[in-house]
Specification:
By secondary structure, the protein is of the alpha/beta class. Helices cover about 45% and strands about 15% of the residues. It folds into 2 domains: about 120 residues, Rossmann fold; about 200 residues, Rossmann fold (3-Layer(aba) Sandwich). The chain is built from 13 helices and 12 strands. Strand 7, helix 6 and strand 8 form a beta-alpha-beta unit. Helix 2 crosses helix 13. About 50% of the residues are buried.
């Protein structure tokens, strides 16, 4: 097996990137948000091409799922994994876990047959194992507990396995629902969502379970997804109304819940949102910080994504700590209190909610780094 690894501990390391791209491109991007390490691995036998990014390990080993995506370019894959790794640092810190932030992406077409998929994920397991516990993986977009079982054949640094924490989607959705209840209390004085209309963008694993919680609590649903089969399931099972993916942002609703890929709030959509609350399960919902500023100026309450969707990382953390499912669900329910604290802090300090959440997370990381006599790196 051929292996190419580029690593940089706080911005060190040299190697040629794909197609001759100089490694300084990677190092420079790492330096923007002080990532500790980026590792590349190529396995010609399986076709595996993977990137693992470690953002910060002050609070503990870095944790983050594996995303399998057919990126348009290497640059897109690198930007995604760096962004997601940093978000995991903030997510774990805000959730009060003893974990740092990391992420991995597998570049390629996820529609592989069983045998091909096993070979790819076993190669990924060897990549994870090469980092000697600095990074722990789990499932993410286009990956599953079955995939993690193959990873576990090559490394012990994996969570989300069948028989352990398993699929984190239901718990993630529960945390997002509790975040929305906190937003409802902040906006309307009551955390009841009965009679409210919720527009859900993306009804995959997390989005579908979120819809189920809303329906159980008396809310009406408007949904969209690029996959018609997922939309049909939400319509059939939960009585949702379907709209096109291009129309979901502008639906007149009480809550807009982005649960697809990142960048839901961008130059095209930030003015289209008609709901007074934005609270969903997607990562990196704000394409740029200024979009969060614009939501604030428009009077729209935004639940910072990495606070609202921390149920998945809490589930994986619970597996490592030996907590029961009931304890994990209880810890996830505390997202309600965290979101309420963030919103109140944002109001009292006159800052956007995403900045308030960042301050809470950064202070926890800084405390850990001071205890270890490390320079603050978030």
């Amino acid at each position: 097996m051929k292996r190419r690894v580029k690593t940089g501990k706080r911005g060190t390391g040299r190697a040629a990137g794909p197609k001759g791209r100089p490694s300084t491109d990677v190092i420079e991007q790492m330096g923007v948000h002080r990532h500790e390490q980026v590792s590349h691995w190529y396995d010609p036998d399986s076709g595996y091409r993977g990137i693992i990014a470690i953002h910060n390990t002050a609070l503990g080993p870095s944790l983050g799922g594996t995303r399998f995506w057919n990126y348009a370019s290497y640059a897109d894959a690198l930007a995604d994994v760096l962004r997601l790794a940093r978000a995991m640092t903030y997510k774990a810190a805000a959730a009060g876990l003893h974990l740092g932030g990391g992420k991995s992406v597998i570049i390629g077409d996820p529609s592989l047959n069983h045998r091909q998929r096993e070979r790819v994920f076993r190669a990924h397991g060897r990549h994870v194992d090469s980092l000697a516990g600095r990074y722990i993986t789990a499932e993410d977009v286009n990956t599953s507990p079955r995939d993690m079982a193959w990873v576990a054949e090559e490394t012990r640094h994996v969570s989300g396995l069948v028989g352990h924490s398993g699929d984190p989607s239901p718990v993630t959705a529960w945390g997002v629902f509790r975040a929305a209840q906190a937003c409802a209390r902040f906006v309307w004085g009551s955390d009841s969502v009965e009679g409210k209309t919720v527009a859900v963008q993306g009804v995959g694993a997390v989005g579908y379970h979120l819809c189920r919680f809303y329906r159980e609590h008396g809310a009406s649903l408007v949904v969209s997804d690029v996959d018609p089969a997922k939309v049909r399931r939400a319509v059939t099972d939960l009585g949702a109304k379907a709209v096109s993916p291009h129309a979901i942002h502008g639906v007149k609703a009480d809550i807009f819940a982005p649960c697809a890929l990142g960048g839901a709030i961008n130059d095209d959509t930030v003015e289209a949102v008609r709901a007074p609350i934005v609270c969903g399960g997607a990562n990196n919902q704000l394409t740029e910080a200024r979009h969060g500023d614009r939501l604030q100026r428009r009077g729209i309450v935004y639940a910072p994504d990495y606070v609202a969707n921390a149920g998945g990382v809490i589930t994986v953390g619970a597996e490592r700590e030996g907590w029961s499912p009931e304890q994990a669900r209880q810890k996830t329910g505390e997202i309600y209190d965290t979101v309420l604290r963030v919103l109140e802090m944002a109001r009292d300090q006159g800052i956007p909610s995403y900045r308030a959440a960042d301050r809470l997370a950064e202070e926890r990381v800084a405390q850990a780094e001071r205890a270890k006599n490390l320079p603050h790196r978030t």
